[in-house]
Design brief:
Layout: E1 2-5, E2 26-30, H1 55-73, E3 80-87, E4 96-103, E5 106-107, E6 120-121, H2 122-129, E7 140-145, E8 159-160, E9 171-172, H3 173-184, E10 210-212, E11 217-218, H4 226-232, E12 239-240, H5 243-252, E13 255-263, E14 269-272, E15 274-275, E16 287-293, H6 312-315, E17 319-323, H7 329-338, E18 343-347, E19 368-371, H8 373-380, E20 388-398, H9 448-456, E21 467-475, E22 478-485, E23 495-499, E24 507-508, E25 512-516, E26 519-524, E27 532-540, E28 546-555, E29 565-566, E30 578-584, E31 588-595, E32 601-610, E33 613-619, E34 631-639, E35 642-650
Parallel strand pairs: 2-3, 3-7, 8-9, 16-17, 17-18, 18-19
Antiparallel strand pairs: 1-4, 4-7, 5-6, 10-11, 10-12, 13-14, 13-20, 15-19, 16-20, 21-22, 22-26, 23-24, 23-27, 25-26, 27-28, 29-30, 30-33, 31-32, 31-34, 34-35
Length: 652
């Protein structure tokens, strides 16, 4: 896979990841000739933790540091060999190939494989098999761009070989090396993304977690055609279904930037946006104003904002909208800001999704986003009657995930060889290591790549810390919350959190704690009568990661919200089935069903009249033909009060 360099992508800090036991041995094999690359004798002064006295030594020191980071995380009894070299690769003044990596062999149907008829790269196959499947051949080969040190990017854009993460305007080598080794560890598909053809007719283990949202099938599904896989690779909506990565994404990712059109009613709604590597922060409160089209009065496109504006007075105090094209995004933003705009929308000039906006100028302080060409046409057509909009954060959805919380994969149109499919989507915020372009905030961590490796088999699937019971009951003296774990001996500190909205913000509460048999209880007395409160538990799971579990709500009046309530399934994730509890405020016709991510019905658990009160139904994790595939499913309760849903992960 190929890692690209582009300028001024969003900068945010990444979280660190602790090492795990049974560390793997990852070694670098120097593939350069004498005097070249890792053997370059050019003298260098030591820099920020790198004691090398030659250019070659500093390069190999960085690679060894990257190998040590992966070695401290992975679990394998087989040495992981990385054949590495420096060589000239594509580089221009605006973009370059930083590095590229591929596995030297792939394997299937070996003893220890989690899935039959499935390709694994050499390093992961060796780990599962417990011995080298291809003796004498390194697991992967990686090449890094030597032209960057020759100044192909211009001054101040060369490799930085320090180990402190303080690269400034240069390009830090360490996260690039970690990224490329990640591809050789199976953060990649063996299937052709451009044609959709499986390698020799077999999917990769990576494909088993790629969901084509149009068909509702994994890439590994025998019913998924080559054409359908190829179409999803340019859909901008290909998602990951692995339970570990998606659970981690829920806490790692920030809320999604969005454009909310408030009026007129005919086009009101939430529009997806691309973000800029410059400009003011996009906040939950957002920036609201009327939308005005920038006009520079110059053919052939007077609305691209590339010449002096003739309607600067109309833009002042409003949100400007401008067409993409001709001049840079930064120059458009400066023109809007200088005219007094409070924010800028860049409408794409070609079909496809909203693009990311590269560039760098610290003097730009207004928020800047992009929208698709189709959305731009829709909005501009209504400007004559007045359009009011807000640029802010979507309170419900995550940046880099779909509306169901599944991490998005990089699937732009047109297809980008070496980048598409085998990376996270560039909309992830904060940035993630395995996006297709390097970001300055990345340093020495692997963030969500660790969790994807849990999904594909690098680590034993952890036995989930699960709730057997979680309820909230309104009483005259407060709200009584009760919970019980299936495996209490493995639970550390548990914090009961409360919010006044389902999406938070959440805070720990002071309550009277006690026991009800084997269950813990907490009486929350600091609540107002007839007001709805939501509760969840914050704890540390068996992999040492902070997670939240459960969601219940009640009011002090003693009734659950709406009198009809669907509780979170227990256990969740569900290895062999899950109990689904719900409450009815009156006798009525009820339909309780399990659906997949596409909305396809998997199993109907109730379809008829039920009396008022508490009810439980059990789903055994099967559809009409057997066990369902691992992934995320939805429990949906239909009553006269409407539809309620809960998400349920299945891990066999």
């Amino acid at each position: 896979m190929t890692l690209l360099r582009r300028f001024a992508l969003p900068l945010l800090l990444c979280a660190s990841l602790a090492s795990v036991a049974h560390a793997a041995n990852v070694i670098i094999i120097n593939n350069n000739a004498a005097g070249v690359g890792f053997n370059d004798p050019a003298p260098r002064a030591p820099v920020a933790g790198n004691p090398g006295l030659t250019l070659g030594d500093q390069r190999i020191n960085v690679f060894n540091a990257a190998a040590a980071i992966w070695g401290g995380i992975l679990q394998s009894t087989v040495t992981i060999e990385v054949r590495a070299q420096f060589a000239n690769q594509t580089c221009t003044a605006t973009s370059a190939t930083l590095g590229s990596t591929g596995s030297n062999s792939i394997h299937r149907d070996f003893i220890g494989a989690d899935y039959a008829g499935t390709w694994y790269v050499q390093s992961l196959g060796n780990k599962l098999f417990g011995a080298d499947l291809n003796p004498g051949v390194p697991d992967m080969s990686t090449t890094f761009n030597m032209a960057i040190d020759a100044g192909c990017f211009g001054p101040g854009q060369v490799w930085y070989y320090g180990l402190d993460g303080l690269e400034g305007s240069n390009i830090e080598m360490l996260p690039v090396a970690i990224h490329e080794i990640g591809h050789g560890l199976n953060f990649a598909t063996t299937t052709s993304g451009s044609t959709g053809a499986l390698n020799s007719g077999f999917p990769s283990v990576y494909d088993r977690f790629l969901l084509d949202k149009v068909t509702g099938r994994q890439w590994s599904d025998p019913l998924e055609t080559n054409a359908q896989r190829a179409a999803s690779a340019i859909s901008n909506d290909l998602v990951w279904t692995g339970a570990s990565a998606n659970a981690a994404a829920a806490t790692y990712l920030s809320k999604r930037p969005a454009l909310i059109v408030n009026s007129p009613g005919g086009i009101a709604g939430t529009y997806q946006v691309g973000t800029a590597g410059f400009g003011g922060a996009i906040t939950m409160a957002g920036v609201t104003g009327n939308v005005v089209l920038m006009d520079d009065g110059t053919a052939p496109n007077p609305n691209d904002g590339c010449e002096a504006l003739v309607n600067a007075g109309a833009i002042a105090g409003n949100i400007a909208i401008v067409d993409r094209g001709t001049c840079t995004f930064v120059s458009k933003a400066l023109a809007a800001q200088n005219a007094g705009a409070i924010a800028l929308i860049v409408a794409n000039n070609v079909a496809g999704s909203a693009p990311g906006l590269g560039g760098n100028d610290p003097t730009i302080t207004i928020p800047v986003v992009s929208i698709s060409q189709a959305d731009g046409v829709t909005i501009k057509a209504q400007l004559g009657g007045g359009v009011n909009a807000t640029i802010g954060l979507d309170p419900l959805h995550l940046a880099g995930a779909d509306n169901n919380g599944r991490a998005k994969m990089y699937a732009p149109s047109p297809f980008t060889g070496g980048s598409s499919v085998s990376h996270w989507d560039v909309t992830m915020t904060p940035n993630a290591l395995m996006e297709p372009a390097i970001n300055n905030d990345l340093h020495n961590t692997v963030d969500l790549a660790y969790n994807l490796f849990v999904d594909i088999g690098w680590f034993p699937q952890p036995v989930a810390t699960t709730l057997a019971r979680f309820t909230a009951e309104g009483r005259g003296d407060g709200i009584l919350v009760s919970w019980q774990f299936t495996d209490p001996a493995d639970i550390g500190t548990v914090t009961l959190q409360r919010a006044t909205a389902e999406v938070g913000p959440w805070g720990a509460i002071q309550a009277e704690f006690g026991h009800d048999g084997e269950a813990m209880t907490a009486l929350d007395t600091d609540v107002e009568p007839a007001k709805t409160y939501f509760y969840r538990l914050a704890l540390t799971d068996k992999m040492g990661r902070p997670v939240s579990q459960g969601l219940v709500s009640a009011s002090r009046s003693g009734s659950l919200v709406g009198r009809t309530f669907l509780a979170a399934p227990m256990p969740n994730p569900a290895p062999h089935g899950s109990a689904i509890a719900f409450k009815l405020g009156r006798p009525e016709f009820v339909r309780l069903a399990i659906t997949d991510a596409s909305g396809r019905n998997i199993r109907t658990l109730q379809n008829g009249m039920l009396p008022a009160g508490d009810h439980i139904r059990v789903w055994d994790g099967r559809d009409g033909s057997g066990d369902v595939a691992n992934g995320v499913y939805f429990v949906t309760l239909h009553t006269s009060a409407g539809k309620q849903s809960q998400r349920l992960a299945v891990i066999h």
